[in-house]
From TrEMBL:
MF annotations from Gene Ontology: ATP binding; ATP hydrolysis activity; ATPase-coupled transmembrane transporter activity
Keywords (A to Z) from UniProt: ATP-binding, Nucleotide-binding, Transport
Family to which the UniProt record says this protein belongs: Belongs to the ABC transporter superfamily.
Entry-linked InterPro entries: AAA+_ATPase (IPR003593), ABC_transporter-like_ATP-bd (IPR003439), ABC_transporter-like_CS (IPR017871), ABC_transpr_CbiO/EcfA_su (IPR015856), ECF_ABC_transporter_ATP-bd (IPR050095), P-loop_NTPase (IPR027417)
Annotated PROSITE patterns: ABC_TRANSPORTER_1, ABC_TRANSPORTER_2
Phylogenetic classification of the source organism: Bacteria, Pseudomonadati, Pseudomonadota, Alphaproteobacteria, Hyphomicrobiales
Organism: Cohaesibacter celericrescens
Name by which UniProt lists this protein: Energy-coupling factor ABC transporter ATP-binding protein
SMART domains xrefs: AAA (SM00382)
Amino acid sequence: MALLLETEDLHFSYHGFEPCLSGVTMAVNAGERIGLVGHNGAGKSTLLHLLVGLNKPSSGRIAAFGRDYQSEEDFRLLRRRVGLVFQDPDDQLFCPTVAEDVAFGPLNLGYSIQDAMCIVDETLASLGLSEFRERITHKLSGGQKRLVSLATVLAMKPDILLLDEPTNALDEKTTRSLIDILVNLPQAMVIVSHDRAFREEVVTRTILMEGGQIR
């Protein structure tokens, strides 16, 4: 399998706190759906944020697609190919309507309005969300917001998906829909999830974060 992304000896701590990452080394290969598990506070969400440059490690290396990433300018390029779906969809959705939220990424990549709207229609249709196109985003249910958050990331056509507790606030039917969606997507994935049943259906291998490291 082709290597897409790797970290080497990543260290990170929040100001005034003990280190939460103490030498994280991992690799993500094409076609993998990696389950990332560990107790609350183990640093799983923090690691996802570092992978897209939302936080900067105190030391260590992040590489993807054949090059290293260090500066914000570097990570702006990386975020075109690695998409993060936040644990809280309200952190991801900020436009008045679903269509505007999904179009935001393609428009910022330089697509014309017409082409961006075609991407919106294609993405929503692929997720079975076409009926939500003109809905007011903040009036959606928690589960609907979570699926729309996924749509906003998929509209960017990333090579890797990072998903932080994707089944939070989902009922059984929506969880089933999400499972069916994820196992049929071509992207490599790193999925933080406490949901064992979900992981058993979706991930191809599981890694444990403990003591600030991957075991």
